[in-house]
Write a structure and sequence with these properties.
The protein has 11 helices and 2 strands, in the order ββααααααααααα. By secondary structure, it is mainly alpha-helical. GO terms for molecular function: peptidase activity.
């Protein structure tokens, strides 16, 4: 080699860079697609790592995990249960500070025909004479709500709760007489909805082959209290219990391949039935 001649230079080598972050060199490659993936885009797999794109593509092709009754398997808080509790608590506070709040939303048979929303709104009110009414109902809701919400999924659980609440008011309507004070007495409380959950969880436990004696004892005690303690709307308990048990049976025993169709059909059918029974009762009152 003659003096002054520069040494040969190797051709540049392309460095492996992350497709999502071209400014980052990575010698780690995705086990699925083989592309380089930087630490931010790496996801630990059973063997090696995968990139976020392959993980997302695989998630789309996989069927979501389901519970024994077809509800989506979710992690985290029972959102619907917490929402219902929050509404009841907020409404209870409004009852204390907003004049006329209770009378505006409470249910009584004589006014239900003109203001049918009271069939539902009364379930989010409670007695203002103390905290025990709302406290007992919210404890009961928290006892069974998360369990049913997890098994059934948020949509069916919300339908179960709301229709049981309406069923409680319909029970009060059916067992009241226009010639008695019961036709004009206001009714408040989430008891109808809670009893609907009791009825549903009783059926669900039997469907899954689990011990339901605890729920039976709770139901028996509450039924006795409803008849013994004054100023308790046992009619709402029975109405909610009947609706909840019927819906719970339909949801629990629906064929696995037809759960969605059965769930929608039974929910709509129950709503139509409650409306029809209510209309017939007012026509014959």
């Amino acid at each position: 080699m003659s003096a002054g001649t520069p040494p040969p230079v190797d051709p540049p080598v392309d460095l492996p860079v992350c497709p999502r972050h071209p400014d980052r060199v990575s010698y780690v490659r995705c086990q699925r697609c083989g592309r380089p993936t930087c630490p931010e885009c790496q996801r630990q797999a059973a063997v090696g790592v995968q990139c976020v794109d392959c993980v997302a593509a695989a998630a789309k092709t996989q069927r979501p995990a389901r519970t024994a009754l077809g509800g989506p398997l979710r992690q985290g808080r029972p959102v619907v249960t917490i929402t219902f509790i929050a509404i009841c608590v907020a409404s209870f506070v409004a009852q204390q500070v907003v004049p006329g709040w209770t009378s505006r939303w409470a249910f009584a048979p004589f006014i239900g025909e003109q203001e049918p929303w009271r069939f539902l709104t009364s379930a989010f009110l409670h007695s203002t004479g103390g905290v025990f009414h709302i406290l007992f109902n919210m404890i009961a809701l928290w006892m069974v709500g998360p369990y049913l919400e997890g098994l059934l999924g948020r949509a069916r659980f919300a339908a179960l709760y709301l229709l049981s609440a309406v069923g409680g008011s319909v029970g009060v309507l059916l067992l009241a007489s226009p010639e008695s004070l019961s036709w004009y007495s206001g009714v408040v409380g989430a008891s109808g909805a809670v009893f609907g959950l009791f009825g549903a969880v009783l059926v669900v436990l039997r469907r899954l082959g689990r011990d339901a004696r605890g729920i039976l004892v709770i139901l028996a005690l509450n039924v006795v209290i409803g008849f013994v303690v004054p100023q308790i709307a046992w009619q709402a308990h029975l109405g909610g219990l009947a609706v909840g048990a019927a819906l719970g049976a339909a949801y629990a025993y629906a064929p696995a391949r037809r759960r969605k169709e059965v769930g929608i059909g039974v929910t709509v059918g129950m709503a139509v039935l409650l409306v029809a029974v209510t209309a017939l009762r007012y026509l014959t009152a």
